Amino acid sequence: MGYIPQASLENLKKYSYKGLDKSLLSKYVLNPFWTWFVTLWPLSIAPNTITLTGLMIVIINFATMLYYDPVYLTEKGGAVGPPQWLFFTWAVGLFLYQSLDAIDGKQARRTGMAGPLGEMFDHGCDALNTTLECLLTSYALNLGRSWWTIAAQIATLANFYLTTWEEYHTGILYLGVFSGPVEGIIMIVIIYICTGLFGPSFWDQRILTIAKLEHDPRFKNIPNVGLNEALMVFAGFGLALNIMNSYHNVRQASKRSGKSPLQALLLLLPFVVSAAIQVLWLSHPEFNHSAIINSATFVPFVGAWGLQFAHQVGRMILAHVTSTPFPRWDWIWIWSVLGAVDANLPHILGCPPIIQTSHKNTTIFVWLTLVVSFVTYARFCYLVINDITNYLGIACFTVRKRDEKGVWRHKDVPNGKQS
Q1: In terms of residue numbers, what domain contains 99?
Q2: Which of 64, 147, 243, 290 could disulfide-link to 362, CB 3.0 to 4.6 Å?
Q3: Structural domain total, the chain
Q4: Is 174 helix (H, G, I), strand (E, B) or coil?
Q5: Which candidate, 230, 224, 238, 246, places its Cα nearest to that of 168?
Q6: Does residue 1 lie within any of the structural domains?
Q7: d(C-alpha 85, C-alpha 193), whole Å
Q8: What is the pTM of this model?
Q9: Cα(first)–Cα(last) distance of the chain, in Å?
Q10: Which of 66, 118, 89 is nearest to 302 (CA)?
Q11: Which residues are marked as active site?
Q12: Which residues of the chain are modeled with pLDDT < 70?
C-alpha cells in the first residue's frame, strides 16, 4: 500500500518540467556563475544531495542564531544579540543555498536524473527554507518577536504559495523580472551584510531622520518609519505585484484550456484559511495566558506553521507532477484550529480556555504542535519519495549509470530496472 494511487503514479512518466526566468540578474550575472559552479561537482553526486546540502547550510545558520542568543528561545526578553560577524556567515550561507538550489537542476540534466522526484525534493526544501529565512531575516532586521515578523511570514509564504498555484494551473514555473528566489535572496544577503557591518539596531533608524527631512514641512504627512518597517512595506508592494502577475498568467492559461479563471482563483482560499487560523491563535494572548508572540514559544510556533505550510504546498506540487486534483484541505490544520478555538473560547462561549489554561500548558501545547507538524511532514516526504523511487526505479541520493548500450540505469536497482 503506497501513498500515491497507482493511476496517479502512471502520470509521473508524463511529467516534464518547464520554467521561465525573466530575471536580468539571473541571466547576465548569476546564471553564468551557476553554469561554471555546477562543473565543480562530480557526476557521481546526485542532484538531490546538492539540494539537501543547501538546506543543511540554512539549518546551520538557524542553529547558530539560537546558539548565540539562547534567550530568544528560552525567556521572554530575547534578542540579547549574537556577535556581528555571525551575520556575515548567514550571508555566505544563504548565497550558497541559492547557488546550490540553482545548480541542482543543471546537475540533474548532467546526470540524466531530471524528473518529478527532483521537482518534489527541490520545492520541499525551498518550502522549509522560506520559514527559516523569514525568522533569520526578521532577527537581522531587529524585528524579533513581533507582528512585523508574522506579516513577513505571511508575505513570504504567500509568494511561495502563489508560485506553486501558478505552476499547477499553467504547467510553467514563472520567475519574473524581480522574484524571490533570485533578487529577493540577494536582497536578504545584502541585509545580512549590512547587519554584520552596523548591527541590528541600524535598521531601527527612521528614514526621514537619516535624510534629515523630519522637520521639513513638505514631508510632515509622511510617516517617519524605520528602515526595517519600510522594507516590510516594500515587500508588501512586491507581494501585490506578484499576485497580479500570477493571476494574469493563470487567467491566460485558463482561457486557453477553456476553464473558468474564477475556479482557479478560488484555490487561493486554502492559503488564506490556513494563515487566518494561525493569526487567530496569536491574536488573543491575554485570554490564553500564553503571550506567544512575546515569549519563547514564538519560534516553535512559527516553526510549526512553516512545517504545516510545507506539507500543504508539498501536496500541491505532488498534485502537479501526478496530474491529480488540487488539494483544498489539509488535515494537519485541525491541530492549529484546536489551538485557535481554545485560545478564543472567551470570545466564542464566554468561558476560559480548556487546554491553554496557563503559560506552561500553552508552551507544552505549542511544542507538541511543532512535533506533530514535523512528524506529519517527515512522513509525507518519506512516503512520497518511497513511492516515486520504487515506481521509477531510481534512488533519491544515488546517481544512475549508463549500461553498455548507453541507457541510463540505476546502479542499485535489482535487474537494472530502467527509470
Answers
A1: 6-416
A2: 290
A3: 1
A4: strand
A5: 246
A6: no
A7: 9
A8: 0.89
A9: 21
A10: 66
A11: 123
A12: 1, 73-81, 285-290, 400-419
